[in-house]
Amino acid sequence: MLKRLLSNDFPRSRVLAVVLLVLLLGLAFAPFIFPGVKALNVAAKILVFVVLVASFDLLLGYTGIVSFAHTMFFGIGAYGIAVASTRLGATWEALVAGLAGALALSFALALVVGLFSLRVKAIFFAMITLAVASAFQTLASQLSDITGGEDGLTFKVPELLSPSFELMETPFLGVALDGRLLCYYLLFAAATLLLLALLRIVNSPFGRVLQAIRENEFRAEAIGYRVVVYRTTSSVLSALFACASGAMLALWLRYNGPDTSLSFEIMMDVLLIVVIGGMGTIYGAAVGAVLFVVAQSYLQDLLRLGSEAAAGWPWLAALLSPDRWLLWLGLLFVLSVYYFPTGVVGRLRASSAGGKS
To answer: CA 243, CA 229: separation in Å to the nearest integer?
Structure first.
């Protein structure tokens, strides 16, 4: 059963298997292990980024396509839920309609971009996707009647997922069983299913062709594979998964705006997470997302504690100032790339293979 779920793509490292199991259990029981609003928001953000980064890894790590338009599809998914819920009300039908409309628009845009741009060289394709993403962000900001403009859209969700809904009056293990908790587990189930679906795709014959194209595009074409078709299909699938992750984000926040889902900073975060976790692994998306989001969320708190502890050494206290958290985050990224050039997952798998040999 496990073999079928993981699509024969096992961690191939005992340490990695333990890490993935700990992450799975940690996210599954996060509301009870790490109580509090901030911890729950961090766990939900991790679930969203796991799907978003894994979908980008399908594009970059398995197909070798560098695209800067990935957050555009992320934003489309978020706006689909936000616009539908604003216009149709806080109903399940609105969520389904919003997700379906967002997926349809993502499919169409990814197909158009893929057909018109994937025939060009990598760097030119990257520039084209960057231009398309920038244009879409500007469009989302200007269409205020639909998207809410710079202010974005705040909406309500079905009562079952609303914080006001109480499943039980008395807390369970100190945690209130309310709609917020149900929403978190809806995100957890969605992230798990989407990640397993991506594992199935990359370990199918289709996925192996994508890897062949990544390694040597001309050889794959000489064998008889239609490279443009495979690359376009990969772009479309990647866009659909990114769209689903955007819908997850909007559902959790009950808000969406240009800076929330369309900013270029999100694209940079995705690139960093892919590199940290390990390209072409899918598992790297989970490991990298946890490391990055936790560091991004709690590094300031750790630096604040360190700054207070080093109050007797003014230079050290200034160096550990919470205002310099981006400096330390950048340093951690540089160190991770230096010591883990193939990502955390790649390093662990290589170490395991070296130990066996």
So the answer is: 21
Assess contact for 72 and 136: CB atoms under 8 A: yes
Q: Name the DSSP class of 166.
A: B
pLDDT at 229: 87
CATH number of 2-263: 1.10.3470
CA angle (26, 244, 265) in 5-degree steps: 80
Low-confidence residues of the chain: pLDDT under 50: 357
Model pLDDT, residue 244:
96
Contacts with 5 (C-beta within 8 Å, 6 or more apart), sequence order? 196
pLDDT value at residue 354: 61
DSSP 8-class letter at 90:
S
* Each residue's pLDDT tens digit, 213-243: 888 888 888 888 888 888 889 999 999 999 9
* Euclidean distance between CA atoms 77 and 324, whole angstroms: 33
Q: Average per-residue pLDDT in the chain?
A: 87
Q: What is the pLDDT of residue 353?
A: 67
Q: Are strands 255-256 and 153-154 parallel, antiparallel or unpaired?
A: antiparallel
Nearest to 278 by CA among 193, 324, 228, 347: 347
Measured between alpha carbons, how far is 44 from 246 in angstroms, rounded to an integer? 12
Burial of 93: CB neighbours in 10 Å, binned 0-12, 13-18, 19+: exposed
**CA distance between the termini of the chain:** 29
Q: Taking each helix axis from N to C terminus, what angle separates 179-202 and 227-253, rounded to the nearest 10 degrees?
A: 170
Residues 6+ away with beta carbon under 8 Å from 153: 79, 82, 83, 86, 147, 255, 256, 257
Q: Tokens 């695209």 label which residue? A: 67
pTM of the model: 0.93
Integer angstrom CA distances of residue 16 from 124, 338, 339, 342: 37, 19, 16, 14
Quick one: the chain helix, strand, coil %, rounded to 5? 75, 0, 20
Where are the domains positioned within the chain?
2-263
